[in-house]
# Entry
Amino acid sequence: MALVLSTGLYPETQPWRTHAMQVPHGHVLHVEESGDPAGICAVVLHGGPGSGTSPLLRRFFDPARYRVISIDQRGAGRSRPRGATAHNRTEDLLDDLRLVREQLEVPRWLVVGGSWGATLALAHAAFEPQAVAALLLRAVFLPSAEYIEDFFQDTAGRAPDAWARFASVVPHDQRHDMLGYLARGLQEPATGNHADLPRRLALAWWQWERTLAGGELVSNTDLQPDRKTLDALVDRYRVQSHYLLHRCWLDSPPLLERLDALPQVPTLLLHSRDDRICRPEGAQAVHERIAHSQLRWVDGAGHDPSHPAMVSAMVAALDSYALHGHFGDSPVP
# Structure
């Protein structure tokens, strides 16, 4: 049967199996399987850290061709306990991926990740190269001190007015260390004199992030999530700040130096030159370090996975892999 290439998202389908998978130190991962049980096995790694997966991420895949495994990482999404930072480091996530793969009896899988998920995909491929059949990396993030500071301090001056609104939730004498203050504030309990602080910090962070995410800078100060969504954002940013404070435990050695251990498998990076959250220089650096990789610029998409240009690029890449076993142009021998 011939494969018809698509440019839009595939229809949403419901998972055919879900798992509450126990992993060490009391964490329980929410894992979903969707698509064709006999299809090409792919694992989806969400961003954040702490964001959790979403139905959008599996709609890049043809459900008639792929068996899609979606994992909520420790502390994220529907994994429990949500927002937990204890025993939650990159090395734990790498061990979890191995356990999930073994329990689901998957010898090798296509690894698809966006933003932090792309970073985790690279770390996974260096940790278990024999488990990786191919890598599709959207908007890869380099967890360096420079890039992290740029996001929180707006050192590039991308949106000074919006950053000033973001910074207004932090005392003046703490604004030189926005991340440190946010991390401490998000750990505050939801009771007592400071019960509202985590929600105020999460809202400000979310609005700043959404301001930068699109292809065009827009003000998002009028966006107000409901209380349930806001509480989920507190948990998300608690995990994310925990990781970013430690540069995701990928600085000794730095992530770029770990890439020499990657398997020589089809590897495609998709990135927008106007991505204001994960800088395009990071994607270029990863591409230059992986000799067999391809880098395709998807301009105008910003950091938005649902932007039509990024959707088209993701779907086309996955359709090509389903048909040819590579992402097009320059297949790996």
Q: What stands out?
A: The chain has a mean pLDDT of 93. The CA atoms of residues 140 and 283 lie 6 Å apart. The first strand starts at residue 17 and ends at 22.
